[in-house]
Specification:
The complex is a heterodimer. By secondary structure, chain A is α+β, with helices and mostly antiparallel strands. Chain A is built from 33 helices and 16 strands. The radius of gyration of chain A is 36 Å and the shape is elongated. In chain B, α13 packs across α15. Classes of the chains: A alpha+beta, B alpha/beta.
Chain lengths: 932, 465
């Protein structure tokens, strides 16, 4: 196979070292280093030559007076550049005019002609200095400059050569935007300058005209003075012509450029909202239809024309305009902001920049599972950007339809967002219109979509031809209100309210819209169905019987698939007949739930005291209404099964005792739990309600998580609770400590939501059972007061459904964990030292978990009978065997099943629809008390 | 393209090269800084086309531009600096390699440049490293050549083998490479239906173990593979399948097999399909394979064999040694025959690399194995497998990044590192290490604490933990 003649010469077996000395004969200047990386050289160490500490941006100018000179750096801190010679580097990057083109008077043209040159981009390096740069050359206009042009450049300087070339396109794109901003401001300033000059010239012409007339009258037409004045006047006339021509050229530029398909005009953000923007800083529009003569004169303070000499002196002692003056203050500041952003964007090691880009591309392809553990903002933004891009470029949007659909959503729903006005009275016409607005590409994939629905989600609620409202502005707000009112509205700061409002207003592409799943023959308002029937009170009226039945069927289907040990409590609308399984009632002490009543919840929480006395479990909770969808046939209690009700061993008799002990502890030892693992510094808690949770937050939380798994031997059990959907309550007297623990645990929480909606980091009032549906991680304030006792009473009451981590006593009460996955995820012997690294490790493991969940959920043969007569139990057995083969045993299976259920819900409801799973599920499993 | 520029006098010598297919390259130039006349173009290479894309005057103007700023050059003698220009005003991109050379009994700053139209920017960028690496090596040889010529007092034009002929030996292949990439490069987005991952079952198109070995080894050699076979469709299907595990940019730096006749092997591409000749063999240039930036996996789809080169750090070490021997041979050469470009490699007998550059894949992994076992359980035809693949790649990249971060803090904890990251299987560690090495060059040496280990020594180290 390998028969190269090159090989023929090499027949002698030899060690590498023997011929080493032979190579020494080659002079160093002609050789290559044998070892590309030194034994002890850290691959992160910068080149030894670099005289600056980190990357920076340099703006330089080729001054007509002093030659190339550095103007400013970003960041401005001189320590950034260190001893790096900015003057020399400016000289090097500005010594060549890469935009060489003609300016001034072209041959055959009487007037000076502005040449709108394109920016040039150069990558160069100075290997001796260890500096490599992306240099963006641009030309600005200045009426007083030679040829009216001032060459500038913006350079991104780094010690990493690969970074510059690796990010060339990104750097080029970002700097082009900054350059366009600068040039827009410059054109405005140049036009203003021309206008002023024209006014001066016209004023001068008037003055000269008068003087000429006077001279003529005094000395006659042919006197020397009169001729001089006449010549001066002629020069002024010519100058006026020239300047008018220049003004015409500069003002007509955008119109000419718009015809260029690659031109992206600078569009300032919040232009008129900018605080402190003076009237004269407002950018003018340059349009031939709206000439600056009209607009600028109106806006700017009146200008007093001055008499000027017709021949302007071009001397070297004049002061050149600064960049700020050349570009208009507003645009200059905008550019500086943009450059500061660029500096931030490309700051740091190349691997983090490039891997982020890779991660972004990969996450985009797996949107369906991103909601589980990925940074919400990232994938949400991706979705919105895609939608935007598709709107902007219908051609590109149509392309994927011809090939393989990009995402699984394409198959199920062919979702197209149709912005609508969100009134309750949604007319048929509007809906029909919405349907008609659907573009034809959907039809291309419809066949596929139907096939996918049929096969993947048999019995799903989104099958068939119907319109579905997956989420609306109203439902979002309603849910938000519920959350607020049911808990403690007083705790929500005005800030968080504002933030929430802001967030809502930004969701115009998602929540504020109807999503049309596919076309339909009839789509009455009754067809519209709420995403969260348990949470959206008003929209329940839309549910008619048939819809409701469908929904129930879907849920039953999902519930059945969740396995025999899992018992679901589903919240249906109050009109529905309550079905109570007597067997369950015995086990559950007759809990009868109904949907949470906001009024009641409000009443409970407004004054911080429960006004309605909680009913005993046997009597049933009047506030709640439950429908047990327990499948008797599948529910077969076996010994050791976590789902067996008999094995429920929460010793209720101990609870009041413990309660009293806790209270006593609170009083006596409220300050004695300043353990090394936590601190009570409230301000240090990075998790803030109402703020979007970013990867940065999570990385910070990684350190707390690392500390948590090292110091709490039962960390795995706590994490298991979170991963299996069991609400974990962190109980403690010290808010800082509790918040820190909540923060540490939050990174293990699936379906966190953009704002961490399912986390309540600090709760000081009693909670309801419905809160357990909304919140999966709660920080609970232990207080020694009547409210505290009622709070602990509620804790006691629902303790069978929740896990309780007592931060003060360092105990955990939760079901046991005997799997392997969490052991790898949270191994207290880990040698990982840094929080951010540990977070990366967790991210990797959780991605692996998501992948398994995805496989489990979408493997058809695991969920469907192979033959018509195959029993359900065999299908269940097949699923179990499948997970065993994948290495998941015991409680790991519960994790997979819970996450698979979440995935199914998310899949049915579409991406980005809220955070809480609609199914309200409890696992009746034995809990144990773990202590350090 | 740009306004006409006055031609220089005397006319610059030019070599027109007949290229099969479309050539994205407009021209290549060799220029130097004359101490009296300033920047001067020594030679122009341009593709032979009916339509004149750039006049000689324009080419000269552009080439001079690349040297204009180099009067301030302060690089160490022997350094080869790369400059990259996007001159929108001229509508071109220029890649210039600036170096010091000896011409006309003087030390001059020289520039070897290639010029492409600006419209080819996105096409060219993924291939930048390949072109630069190859041109850099020919410049290294050229510098020795120029030095020897000066020592021998042979004038530039009078020598039997001028520097131009040496440079031509690499300029032509680079032109051919770019031309072949224009017509046969792998697209950035690959339709899963064109790959083996669309099969109903794992063994449908090829043997299960073969596919596993191929992908595993492909990942262990940093995503660099050559696929050889007699059936172009079969070869291309494997090429596309392997490219699924690369980034879009790396895919653009991969090439499909040509059905009519095979391309030659090109060093530096990530994946390339190569067609066997009528005798059922493919001549593989050893030097070229060794000069690739990463080790390569050799996959023969006819006989279902997978072989791989030594790990990245060992490969780089071998590569440098081979380069050194080649340069030393040129330095020692005393006659024109010995200096002829084609005979340089054979002249050196001091360095004998291991002939078995391609060895069997001995490291078993669980990552690819379980991926393949699982992905075929998902229904084909739907985007399910694409999503599952994206998840797999995300896991790999995250593992690699965690490994990089862990190594950054603590270099001597290899055993812990393997346990922490669940990389106790040797193949898994190799795959993650290869990806990490690609992301952060030099990591392997840093983790192992020695600049060079052979793969055997490395295995011993691993076992000793």
């Amino acid at each position: 196979m390998i028969t190269s003649p090159d090989l023929v010469a090499f027949t002698k077996e030899d060690d590498f070292g023997d011929s080493y000395t032979e190579l020494d004969s080659l002079p160093d200047e002609f050789s290559v280093p044998l070892f590309s990386h030194d034994e002890n050289k850290n691959p992160w160490s910068k080149t030894s030559f670099a005289k600056f500490t980190k990357d920076f941006i340099l703006i330089s100018e080729f001054s007509e007076q002093v030659g190339p000179q550095p103007l400013l750096t970003i960041p401005e801190d001189p320590r950034t550049c260190g001893s790096f010679d900015l003057n020399y580097f400016s000289l090097r990057i500005m010594s060549v005019d890469y935009q060489a083109s003609f300016v001034g008077h072209p041959p055959g043209c009487g007037y000076p002609k502005l040449n709108f040159v394109e920016d040039s981009k150069v990558v160069l390096g100075d290997s001796k200095e260890g500096a490599f740069a992306y240099v963006h050359h641009l030309t600005l206009y200045d009426l007083e400059a030679r040829g009216f042009v001032r060459p500038f450049c913006m350079a991104y300087i780094s010690a990493d050569e690969h970074k510059i070339m690796g990010q060339f396109l990104e750097l080029s794109s970002e700097f082009s935007k900054a350059s366009e901003c600068l040039k827009t401001g410059n054109r405005k300033a140049f036009a203003n300058e021309l206008e002023k000059k024209l006014k001066d010239l016209e004023y001068t012409r008037t003055v000269l005209h008068k003087e000429t007339e006077l001279q003529k009258k005094a000395n006659g037409c042919y006197s020397t003075q009169a001729i001089e004045k006449a010549n001066e006047l002629a020069n002024v006339e010519k100058s006026i012509y020239e300047h008018k021509d220049l003004l015409k050229q500069i003002t007509s530029y955008p119109n000419r450029k718009i015809k260029d398909p690659e031109f992206l005009p600078y569009e300032p953000d919040n232009l008129f909202n900018s605080a402190g923007l003076d009237q004269d800083q407002m950018p003018n529009s340059f349009n031939t239809d709206d000439p600056p003569e009209d607009s600028s004169y109106v806006r700017r303070p009146s200008y007093t024309p001055q008499f000027i000499k017709a021949k302007s002196a071009k001397c070297f002692d004049k002061r050149l305009k600064t960049l700020e003056e050349l570009c208009d203050v507003y645009f200059f500041n905008q550019t500086m902001e943009q450059l500061a952003q660029i500096e931030k964007m490309f700051r740091g090691d190349l691997i983090y920049i490039s891997t982020n880009q890779i991660f972004g591309a990969l996450l985009k392809k797996q949107k369906i599972t991103n909601f589980l553990f990925e940074d919400y903002e990232d994938h949400r933004d991706e979705v919105e950007r895609d939608e935007y891009c598709q709107k902007q470029n219908p051609c590109s949007a149509a392309e994927p339809a011809l090939s393989e659909p990009v995402s699984i959503e394409d198959y199920t729903s062919c979702v197209e967002t149709v912005p609508i006005k969100l009134d309750q009275e949604i007319t048929d016409e509007e809906l029909q219109e919405a349907e008609h607005t659907e573009s034809s590409p959907c039809d291309v994939t419809r066949d596929n979509s139907e096939e996918a629905i049929d096969v993947d989600i048999k019995g799903s609620i989104s099958s068939g031809d119907s319109i579905e409202v997956l989420g609306t502005e109203k439902s979002f707000l309603t849910q938000g209100n519920l959350i607020k009112s049911e808990s403690q509205p007083t705790l929500l700061s005005p800030n968080s309210e504002t933030l929430r409002k802001k967030a809502v207003s930004k969701r115009t592409n998602s929540e504020d819209s109807i999503e049309v799943l596919s076309t339909t023959e009839s789509h009455l308002p009754e067809d519209l169905r709420a995403t969260y029937p348990s949470a959206i009170h008003e929209e329940e009226t839309y549910l008619d019987d048939s819809e409701d039945q469908m929904y129930k069927q879907a849920l039953t289907e999902l519930g059945r698939e969740a396995g025999p040990e899992v018992q679901d409590i589903e919240l249906f609308n109050p009109q529905e007949t309550t079905e109570v399984d007597s067997a369950c009632c015995m086990g559950q002490e007759g809990l009868v739930f109904e949907e949470a009543m906001p009024e009641l919840a409000q009443e409970c929480s407004d004054n911080g005291v429960i006004n309605v006395a909680p009913q005993s479990c046997r009597q049933g909770d009047q506030a709640l209404h439950v429908d047990f969808s327990l499948d008797d046939t599948s529910y077969a209690p076996t010994e050791g099964s976590p789902g067996v009700l008999i094995s429920y061993d929460l010793n209720s008799s101990l609870l009041p005792e413990e309660l009293s002990r806790l209270n006593t502890d609170d009083i006596s030892d409220s300050n004695s739990f300043m353990s090394a693992s936590t601190s009570s510094d409230r301000t240090s808690s990075p998790f803030l309600e109402g703020n979007p949770i970013t990867e940065r937050h999570k990385k910070k939380a990684g350190q707390s998580a690392l500390r948590f798994i090292r110091q709490y031997p039962f960390a795995q059990q706590a994490i298991y609770s979170l991963l299996s959907g069991r609400t974990l309550i962190v109980l403690g007297a010290d808010e800082g400590m509790v918040r820190k623990l909540v923060n540490a645990l939050s990174i293990f929480l699936p379906n966190l939501g953009k704002y961490g909606e399912i986390i309540k980091p600090w709760l000081t009032s009693p909670f309801q059972i419905t809160d357990l549906q909304n919140w999966k991680l709660i920080g609970l304030h232990r207080v020694a007061s009547p409210m505290g006792s009622s709070l602990l009473y509620s804790l006691n009451r629902y303790s069978r459904y929740i896990s309780i981590l007592d931060a003060d006593h360092k105990t955990l009460r939760c079901p046991p964990y005997r799997g392997t996955f969490v052991s790898k995820l949270a191994d207290h012997r880990t040698q990982i030292k840094r929080g951010s690294t540990y977070f990366m490790h967790i991210q990797g493991m959780l991605t692996q978990l998501s992948s398994t969940v995805f496989l489990y959920t979408f493997c058809h043969y695991l969920h469907l009978p192979i033959s018509c007569d195959e029993e359900e139990s065999l299908v269940v057995q097949r699923r179990m065997e499948f997970l065993h083969v994948l290495g998941f045993t015991n409680e790991d299976i519960r994790i997979i099943e819970f996450l698979a259920e979440l995935l199914k819900q998310h899949y049915l409801q579409g991406p980005g629809r809220g955070a809480a799973p609609p199914i309200f599920r409890f696992d009746y499993t034995s809990s144990f008390l773990y202590k350090i | 393209m740009s306004a006409s520029c006055p031609p220089q006098s005397p006319a610059v010598p030019k070599t027109e090269i007949a290229i099969e297919g479309e050539s994205p390259l407009l021209a290549a130039t060799f220029a130097y800084w004359d101490n009296i006349l300033g920047p001067r173009v020594r030679h122009i290479w341009s593709p032979k086309t009916e339509q004149l894309l750039l006049s000689d005057g324009e080419i000269t103007f552009l080439a001079n531009h690349t040297l204009n700023g180099e009067i301030l050059r302060s690089a160490e003698y022997g350094a080869i600096d790369v400059k990259f220009f996007v001159l929108a005003e001229k509508g071109v991109i220029i890649v210039s390699l600036i170096f010091d050379g000896e011409l006309k009994a003087d030390k001059n700053t020289c520039a070897l440049s290639i010029i492409l139209p600006q419209t080819e920017l996105s096409f060219y960028l993924p291939l930048h490293r390949v072109c630069v690496d190859r041109l850099k090596h020919i410049i290294r040889k050229g510098r020795i050549w120029m030095h020897k010529e000066e020592v021998d007092k042979a004038c530039l034009e009078g020598s039997g083998h001028s520097i131009i002929s040496l440079l031509t030996t690499e300029i032509i292949p680079v032109m051919e490479l770019l031309s072949s990439m224009k017509s046969h490069s792998v697209p950035a987005e690959i339709d899963l239906r064109d790959t083996l991952l669309n099969d109903d079952d794992i063994g449908d198109s090829c043997h299960e173990d073969f596919l596993h070995k191929a992908i595993s080894s492909h990942l262990q050699t940093c995503g660099c593979s050559m696929v050889v076979g007699s059936n172009p469709d079969k070869v291309n299907k494997i090429v596309r399948t392997l490219c699924l595990f690369l980034t879009p940019t790396e895919r653009k730096c991969s090439r499909l097999c040509r059905a009519e006749s095979s391309f030659r092997y090109d060093s530096g591409l990530f994946v390339q399909g190569l067609l066997k000749d009528s005798t059922g063999s493919f001549v593989l240039p050893f030097r070229q394979v060794l000069y690739a930036p990463y080790p390569t996996t050799h996959i023969d789809v006819d006989v279902n064999t997978v072989k791989q080169m030594a790990p990245c750090h060992e490969h780089i070490y071998n590569q440098r040694r081979y380069m050194m021997s080649e340069l030393t041979a040129l330095w020692k050469a005393t006659s024109d025959e010995e200096m002829a470009p084609d005979t340089i490699v054979h002249a050196d007998e001091t360095f004998t690399p291991n002939l078995n550059v391609f060895q069997d894949v001995s490291h078993k992994d669980t990552l690819v194995k379980s991926f393949l076992d699982q992905v075929f359980q998902l229904k084909p035809g739907l985007p399910l497998r694409s999503i599952f693949l994206a998840q797999f790649l995300l896991v790999l990249h995250r593992k690699a990044l965690t490994l990089i971060n862990t190594s950054k803090m603590k270099r001597k904890s290899l055993r812990n590192l393997k346990t922490d990251l669940d990389l106790t299987t040797e193949g898994d560690l190799n795959i993650t290490m290869a990806l990490a090495e690609k992301l952060k060059a030099g990591l392997h040496c840093f983790v192992f604490g020695k600049s060079f280990y052979t793969s055997v020594q490395e295995r011993d180290v691993l076992l000793s933990f």
